[in-house]
Automatic annotation (TrEMBL):
This is Winged helix-turn-helix transcriptional regulator. It holds the Pfam family MarR. Residues 1-135 form the HTH marR-type domain. It comes from the Bacteria. Signal peptide: none annotated. PROSITE patterns: HTH_MARR_2 (PS50995). PANTHER family: MARR-FAMILY TRANSCRIPTIONAL REGULATOR, TRANSCRIPTIONAL REGULATOR, MARR FAMILY. The lineage of its organism: Bacteria, Bacillati, Actinomycetota, Actinomycetes, Micrococcales. Gene3D superfamilies: Winged helix-like DNA-binding domain superfamily/Winged helix DNA-binding domain. SUPFAM superfamilies: Winged helix' DNA-binding domain.
Length: 171
């Protein structure tokens, strides 16, 4: 049997994600899913939309629509894939980089406001713990994506931003 998270930790994380989602809605130039696609493209460089879909756990049609919207707004550009001329790569445009930089700055300011009265040591501890949590969650997600039998699945559909991205069945 795998360990279960402390219910208080889970509750705090759920509340935090909800509050961050509410704060993000205010005057952002891109939606949360669009921001994720821009940030991932910046991190990975040019790539296929299907690879972005896999990386964020969304279905390809949803990702394709979001990529198309970002292309139309001038934040991403499509170019032929040199390894397969039938396929296309997407990459950030200069405008997309500016939008991503501005949105990152806005998010940093938001968190900075929330942590303004925290000591430097507390902020460093939070950053360390969040980094560890992110690494652990990445391991679980990667194992899940590769159908690792040592990782217990969560029963029921997984929904991201109102879209069912994957049906999961218990292991």
């Amino acid at each position: 049997m795998q360990p279960t998270a402390d219910p208080l930790v889970t509750e705090h994380l759920s509340a935090m994600f909800g509050l961050l989602a509410r704060a993000h809605v205010v005057d952002g130039p891109v939606s949360r899913p669009e921001y994720t696609l821009l940030a991932l493209t910046a991190k990975r460089g040019p790539g296929r939309a299907c690879d972005l879909a896999d990386a964020v756990g969304l279905d390809q049609s949803t990702t394709s629509r979001r990529v198309s919207a970002l292309v139309e707004r001038g934040f991403l550009a499509r170019t032929p894939d040199p390894e397969d001329r039938r396929a296309q790569l997407v990459d950030l445009t200069p405008t997309g980089r500016e939008v991503l930089t501005a949105e990152r700055r806005r998010r940093e300011e938001l968190v900075g406001i929330a942590l303004h009265d925290w000591s430097a040591a507390d902020r460093a501890t939070l950053a360390d713990l969040l980094g560890r949590l992110q690494a652990s969650l990445t391991e679980v997600a990667t194992a899940h994506d590769h159908h690792d039998p040592t990782v217990r699945s969560v029963a029921g559909p997984v929904t991201v931003s109102g879209t069912t991205v994957r049906e999961r069945t218990p292991a």
